[in-house]
Amino acid sequence: MSKKKKKKKRKGKTSKLVPKPTPPGELKISEAVLRLNEPLRTRYQEPHRIEPIIFFTVMAWNISLFEVEKRTELQEKFIEKLPPEFGGEDVGIFLDSLEMLIERKEKMFPDVQEYILDHKVSFSGTSFSLNVTAVPITEREKKA
Q: Per the structure, how many domains does the chain have?
């Protein structure tokens, strides 16, 4: 293979993985994440809870992109990693909240199939902002 073809082939693969800014008028994933977790932020209003709520919402968002069988497997893995001091009631609240977020994602944004690679919460006084890096997910990746 010539050097030009190799370079062109490599360039195509790289550009496919680089997240692009959201075009004007299109849904920003960061805004969608904040809309999803409104019930949790309303219930738990303390500022120190913002980051864990957003982390939890990102986890639920990404799990929602997989088929049901894979979701169950992922949820079981998360439960295994919970701290030992989590009791049955804590695990129940965890699963109920996770399911609520997944259901909201499917209801509010059923056609948005972007995997969140990274997120950053920035605080300024009593307000905060969220930046999200996401990439489209393929059908093949949903089954992986």
A: 1
